[in-house]
Every structure is written in C-alpha cells, then in structure tokens.
Amino acid sequence: MMHKLLILAQDGNKYRALIEEARLDHLEFATQPAADVDIVLGEPSLIKVALESLSALSWAQSIWAGVEPLLDPAARRDYILTNARGVFGKLMSEYIVGYLLAHERKMFQRIEAQKNKHWEDSDTGTLRGKMIGLLGVGSIGAEVARTAKFFGMTVRGYTISSEASTHVDMYYHGNDLLKFSTGLDYLVNILPNTNETRKIINANLLNSLPPHALFINVGRGSAVDESTLTEALNHNRIAGAVLDVFEQEPLPKDHPFWTIPNLRMTFHTAAPSLAEDITKLFIENYRLFNEGKSLKYQVDFKRGY
Amino acid sequence: MMHKLLILAQDGNKYRALIEEARLDHLEFATQPAADVDIVLGEPSLIKVALESLSALSWAQSIWAGVEPLLDPAARRDYILTNARGVFGKLMSEYIVGYLLAHERKMFQRIEAQKNKHWEDSDTGTLRGKMIGLLGVGSIGAEVARTAKFFGMTVRGYTISSEASTHVDMYYHGNDLLKFSTGLDYLVNILPNTNETRKIINANLLNSLPPHALFINVGRGSAVDESTLTEALNHNRIAGAVLDVFEQEPLPKDHPFWTIPNLRMTFHTAAPSLAEDITKLFIENYRLFNEGKSLKYQVDFKRGY
Predict the structure, then answer these.
(1) What's residue B222's pLDDT?
(2) Please, which pLDDT band fits residue A41 given cuts at 50, 70 and 90?
(3) In sequence order, what are the beta bridge partners of A86?
(4) Which candidate, A199, A198, A256, places its Cα nearest to that of A225?
C-alpha cells in the first residue's frame, strides 16, 4: 500500500530533502492538503488548520513536544498523534546548565562591571554540592538529572508516579510538592501543559524556596502563576528566574516581565526542533507505521501528552 | 619532632579552623614569621615577603596554582615548594562550559533584546559536535576534556609531550601548533606561565582560527599578545573572547580591553582557591612531610610549575 505524506513546517524543504535521502518504501509526497494524504509531519498549529481537509489522515507526527493546538476538544481525534520526544534532553540540559552557571558566575553582573571599568572579582559560586529540583522527570528530566549528577549536584524529582531515572536521588509525588521544593537551590519546571500542572508554580511553592533560589521554566508558561512570580521577583523572595515559556507567546509588550531586573527571558529558544533530529524520529516511526506496528511517543489525547 | 606552621592568607582564620579540626600530629601554629617556623601555607605573594624571616623554612604550600612571585631568581630556593593542583579542574570546567553556553545561547544578546522589549527568538547553537582545542592538558585540562566529551564535543590537546588524558581525541606537540588550532570552534588556553608559553597566542595562531571561533583564556595573561588580540576582536577576525587573566592585574583603566564589545572579562575569578579544597591538599601533604616522604605537586623552580 502506498502512503502519502504532507509536510507542514516552516523549514518544510529541509525536512523533505532529509526524508527523500532516506528513500523510504511506499512513500509519496503531497504538496498540499488533499483527500488521499494519510500522514502529516509538522507543527501542531499548522496541522490543526489543515485537519478538516485531511479526510484520510491516519497518523500525524508533531515536530514539537507540545501539541496543545491539537488537543482542542472541538478538533478531530480519529488519528494517531505522535510528538517529538527523546531529542530535546541534551539541548534542555545545555540551556539549564548554562543559565545555572550564568547565575553562579555572576555573568551579567560582571558585564555591567566591565562597562564601568570596575575590576569585579567578588566570589563565584559552583554547581557542586547544590540541590536541584526537577518538576517532571520524563525523557528531558532524566537527561537533565544525568547532567546535574555530572556536575556534582543532588537531584530531587517530582513526578506523578514514575521513578524511572536512576540519576534522581530522591523522588516526591502527589501531596509532597512542598516537601520536594523546601530547601532547593534551583527549581526547574519541565512539566507538560495539563489540567494538573496549570499554575502549579504558585505562591505556596515560591514561598517554600530559600531567598537564594533560582527558578527556571522550560516546561510550559501555563505552569506558572505569572502575577505571583512577578511579585516574588520584585520583592526578592527568590534570587531570580529564567523563563523560556510564557502564558502568551510572544509576550505582550505591556507585560511586567520585560522590566524585572532579576528575570532573564529567552523567548522559547531553549530546545529548538532540529530537522535532523526530528527526521530521524519520523523515519523510525514511518517504518513501524508501514509494518502496521504501534508507533513511538503516541500522545494520549485525554492525558494531554 | 614538632613542626611549626605559619598561615599567610587573606582567609587565614578559615584555614586555621579547618586544620585545627583535623588534629594533626606534632603540629603547632605560629602567628607571625619567626625563626622556628618550618612550614608555611599561603598566597605566594605573601610568602615571598616573609621568606627572609623564615630561616628554618623547610616546606611552603601555595594555596594558588600559580607561584610566580616565588620564582623570582633573586629569591631563596632552599625549601620545598608545593602548589595547589587537582582542585581547580571542576571549577575551570564549569567556567568554560558556562561561557561556551553563554556564547552559543546568545545570552548577552537576549538580555539586550529584553531591555528593548524585543522577542528575540533567533536560533541557538549547541556544544554537541563542536571542536574544542585545549592549549595545555595537565590536571585542569584533563577535567575540561572530560567535561567537553560529556557534552559531545571533539577534543584536541596541545602539550609538550604528555598524552595522559584519554578524553582528548587528538594530541599535537611542538611545531604542530597551527595544525592544532586550524578549524577549532573554541580555543581554550590553560597553560602555565613559562618562557615557552609567553605570547603563544599571537597573530599566526589567531589567524588560523575560523571567524566564528571563541577564545577563552584561563591560563595566564602572559600567554596572550594583548595588542594582537585587541586587533583581531575589533576586526571580528574571531567571534569573541572570554578572558579571566591579564598581563597586568587588575587591568589598568586605560587598557583597550575594557571597551571591546565582543570581549567578556571575569577578573581572575574562574577558579577560586576554596579553603576546604586546599586544606585537604595541605593535610595530605603534611602527613607525607611528617613521615619524611616526598610531597605531592612539588614545583620545579627551573621549569616554573
């Protein structure tokens, strides 16, 4: 049986070239939404727009981890949705380690000192011996935990029930969220967007952190109560925050986040979907699909990830 | 036989408390230079000043890696000099990885964007697959190499003859300096200050690097031809530099480095001597000294390290 693939991504040509190189069996390319397309590869927001014209759709491979647009209860769910997983862990780890070190090494403070021709040789901190807490330990969290152990940190993990990563020193679940967070040097959110994770970073959680703590959000903006975080940062209740994701993206020009001095923003760049990585994943899944086997990283529409 | 220890360091009280805790055999403390002091622990510049009053000096343990003040040919050399080694590798690795990630992640560029309320989501780079070159692979370089491999980099090492670290992919020696540097994404200097390393980072070496290369100096300022580096940075012949050490420290106010936009300075803070680490080293060496055995990390006055 022949399959027909539609690619819906900004760098679609790159994806097409990489897939053509792999010379996959029984695969043809479509250039626009059509009734004979049974596979789509692309960005969830673009796939959503095309959904109604894809009557034969059998499988959609998202090039992103987050698939919110396709979880809209009004949208079709009569196809297999797989997302990108297992490819962001190393990029996320680089991002997190990079900003932890920027904090410990006072990088931004020393840049300001340089502008003022001031020999700023105050003490630097180290990652060694610090306590990091990971909200969410899936494939990304496991890689972050492995990296944290490499640098000599102690790792706490908060999950629904999984204790799969051996690089987490202590696991917490359910009602133990504040036990998890109390005493952390660094709090990192990697949770997906679900009903349970919405505004999980609230006043109680932020108040449980010591004043020297740094908060990093690479999960979803919806996990943070943004006005509470604004207040905590403005009153120096924690040392700082590094945010890659926001409730609304791009962030509105009048949002208070723009001007908070101890807040660094990175504009959803922490873990870009690299065409090379995602294509590998697609090819692996296509072979399973073509053999009628079950696919990797299937999204549960109800659970939301 | 009793030994008498004089501590000469800015945080001398911290060192004394840590050593007292260890309750070492046959050890008394002196509070000032005296004729019965046979051991001194401290900063080389302070030790040098006291040298003439320490007629019974048998062993000096430096709390720094660099011991230049004590290498002055006019100064005494009739004692055993040991320096701090094996304790800076992890701190140096954190520093180097931190600034490599700051570069790849465009951290300073994104901070400027935030000030202008600009959603700066241009692509980020990654350490994975990059080529790093280490000028000098002693105990610090070996730890940097190990860290670079953790992040998926390819590692070149330039040494006099040693090929001890197994985390270096390719070694270079002698006249192969430009073979070593050609094509590097990152060049890191970790060499000590000797006649052979003076101004080793010159026009030839800088011209051999690609325009996107980043140069990091955590070795000694004397290794760099500073006016040549100034010119290379001002003409964007390389992408940038991160300097922790300088020919003259603190850097004179009229030095051109202060105002070069693609130069980050960190004011000799890359690898602080932590009292806990150095005391461990001292205690280990004291036990050997007390037993009449040869000490760890002995400095060769002629070689200079």
Answers:
(1) 95
(2) very high
(3) none
(4) A199
Contact A117 B253 (CB under 8 A): yes
| Cβ-based contacts of B233 with chain A (< 8 Å) | none
Indicate yes or no: CB of B94 within 8 angstroms of CB of A267: no
Q: What gap in Å lies between CA B152 and CA B130, rounded to an integer?
A: 8
Predicted complex ipTM: 0.90
Alpha carbon distances (Å) from A297 to A57, A63, A87, A284, B289:
18, 12, 12, 11, 61
Q: Give the nearest partner residue to B117 out of A119, A147, A258, using CB atoms.
A: A258
B91 touches chain A (CB under 8 A): yes
Sequence letter at residue A71 = L
Amino acid letter for position A77: R
This prediction's pTM: 0.90
Q: Which residue is it, tokens 């029984």?
A: A26
Angle at which helices A89-104 and B107-115 cross, to 10°: 70
What are A171's strand-pairing partners?
A157
For the record, the structure tokens of B278 come out as: 């150095």
**Domains plus CATH for chain A?**
3-86+274-290 (3.40.50.720), 89-265 (3.40.50.720)
User: How many contacts, defined by CB atoms under 8 Å, are there between A and B?
Assistant: 119
pLDDT at B1: 83
Task: State the average pLDDT over residues A85-99.
Answer: 95
C-beta atoms of A120 and B267 within 8 A: yes
